[in-house]
Design goal:
The chain is α/β, with parallel strands linked by helices and 258 residues long. The chain folds into two domains: 85 residues, 60s Ribosomal Protein L30, Chain: A, CATH 3.30.1330; 159 residues, SPOUT methyltransferase, trefoil knot domain (Alpha/beta knot, 3-Layer(aba) Sandwich). Helices cover 37% and strands 20% of the residues. It is built from eleven helices and eleven strands. The protein has a seven-stranded parallel β-sheet with strand order 7-6-5-10-8-11-9, with helices on both faces. The protein has a four-stranded mixed β-sheet with strand order 1-4-2-3. α1 packs across α2 and α7 packs parallel to α11. The longest helix has 18 residues.
Length: 258
């Protein structure tokens, strides 16, 4: 049993929890909690840590795995949650290429520019899976999807939705244009309501930063601008809510054709 916070493995887990740089260098992240652990593809597991109580209760779940048993207090130091469930593991990061996101002839994508809130991005991933989105492309300045708060907010969708970060969104959009994927920018200045467009063919919704919205650069290159009509004195919706409205309109139209 590991009972010292000076243990090198414990220190590494804490570093992975706290630092994006460490996660990038090791191409790893921390998965915490029973549900997230159960759904994690086994080939992605690098290290497993559990309390004695968890290991005893879930012996069958851990069967065949090399598990480091950790003292309860030390486990609390490793954990990013207020009420640790007694299991976490170090996992390999996902690895997708743009070609994988563009495999389907009428692919359905989401593009996120500079979103900063972990809860927003995590919720968007979870909703994207529910809405049948084929992939998510994030600008390099978006919050780290492997941030423990973001990962937890995906509720496991991070394992199933193909995604990638890009430092050249212009090149990505050109590739989408080659594939005849229409880009729709959610923008306050748009004149066309979101439910007046046709998303049954290759489509990609562009969602901008929570405070600033889409950059002028991305707005200019988008094929079409769309808006979500607002009643009352509300000017705009939360980024995750706006993305949800758009994704489910795309989902509704595509279900109508099946």
């Amino acid at each position: 049993m590991i009972s010292s916070k000076a243990n090198s493995k414990i220190k590494n887990v804490v570093a992975l929890q706290k630092h994006s740089k460490t996660r990038k260098e090791q191409k790893a992240f921390v998965v915490e909690g029973l549900k997230m652990f159960e759904e994690l593809p086994r080939e992605k597991i690098k290290e497993v840590y559990a309390t004695e109580a968890f290991a005893s209760k879930y012996e069958s779940l851990l069967a065949g795995m090399v598990v480091e048993i950790v003292d309860e207090k030390i486990f609390e130091l490793m954990s990013d949650t207020k009420t640790p469930q007694g299991v976490l593991c170090v996992a390999k990061q996902m690895d997708y290429e743009l070609t994988e996101l563009l495999e389907k002839p009428e692919t359905f994508l989401l593009i996120l520019e500079d979103l900063q809130d972990p809860g927003n991005v995590g919720t968007i991933f979870r909703t994207a899976e529910g809405a049948g989105v084929d992939g998510i492309i994030l600008s390099e300045n978006c919050v780290d999807i492997y941030n423990p708060k973001t990962t937890r907010a995906t509720m496991g969708s991070i394992y199933r939705i193909p995604f990638l970060y890009t430092d050249d969104m212009g090149a990505v959009l050109k590739e989408l244009e080659k594939k005849k994927i229409t880009t729709y920018a959610a923008h306050l200045q748009a004149k066309t309501a979101y439910d007046q467009e046709d998303y049954q063919k290759g489509s990609a919704f562009l969602i901008g930063n929570e405070g600033k919205g889409l950059s002028k650069e991305l707005t200019k290159v988008a094929k079409k601008l769309i808006k979500i009509p607002m009643a009352g004195e509300v000017e705009s919706l939360n980024a995750a809510v706006a993305a949800t409205v758009l994704m489910y309109e795309g989902n509704r139209q595509r279900r109508r054709e099946t």
